[in-house]
Amino acid sequence: MSRKRRKRRAVVDTSVLVAGIAGLKQSRHASNIASAQLLATWVERRHFVWLYSDDVFDEYQGVLSTKRVRRNLIGRIINMLRRKGERVTVGVPLNLSPDPDDNHICDCAEYGEADFIITLNPDDFPQDRLHARVVSPDDHILT
Question: Which end of the chain is more exposed for a tag (fewer CB within 10 A), N or C?
């Protein structure tokens, strides 16, 4: 009897979500293109489980609002992630990031047993303190 492989689990840093949305608007910046391709592939194939926590969603919404993304688009993105992703209940903050503003991403990854944190800011996610592998949106391990 064959065992079904567990789908990989990932937390997507806000930097990737914002760059991906910008990339979908025909941006030519390399990180935006890679992030847009990651988002498009996820929408089409759900090739990993998108993990989120309440704090991650709060940051997504806040940053997208400051970038002047239309409210209805933000709502559609959040609602899709809520339906298709997996909510993580975070316990006691672990304070793993050198940037306190990124601790909620680390907490979501640790409590959600993520395989990856996908980010454009790897220095904010110390690999030696995390179980999840820190990768960029163009890392081929994600495909």
Answer: N
